[in-house]
Amino acid sequence: MRNAIIAIASAMILSTSAYAQTATSTTAVKEVYVAAKPMDVLSSNLIGLDIHNGAKEKIGEVTGDESTENEGRADQAKADLKGAGEKVKDAFNR
């Protein structure tokens, strides 16, 4: 009996229209397309640019300096090792 009631209730819920899917957006989004010349996409032309995320927060900079890049890789490897050590420590503390 309980299964029949659940089946009927499920059928009623699934047969109703989905209001969340029929909503329309009131804000207009204008897409902007830019034609890039072959010289514009060379990496040497990107040095000195700031990198921003979707929230317009600065997340990096293109330097072109290999020593800085190597420092960044070393710092990332060090952080990864520290994180792995913390996971091992947590596993033994359980």
What does this structure look like?
The protein has helices spanning 2-15, 66-93, and strands spanning 50-52, 58-61. The protein is mainly alpha-helical. The protein has a domain at 37-94. β1 (50-52) and β2 (58-61) form a beta hairpin. The longest helix is centred in the last third of the chain and has 28 residues, at 66-93. The chain starts with a helix and ends with a helix.
Attribute tags:
94 residues, mainly alpha, two-stranded antiparallel ribbon, 2 helices, 45% helix, flat
Instruction: State the share of residues found in helices, binned by percent.
Output: 40-55%
Cα shape: flat
Radius of gyration: 27 Å
By helix and strand content, what is the structural category? mainly alpha
Number of helices, where a helix is a run of at least 4 consecutive DSSP H or I residues:
2
Percentage of β-strand residues: 5-15%
The strand count comes to 2
What spatial order of strands do you see in the largest sheet?
1-2
* Mean pLDDT across every amino acid position: 77
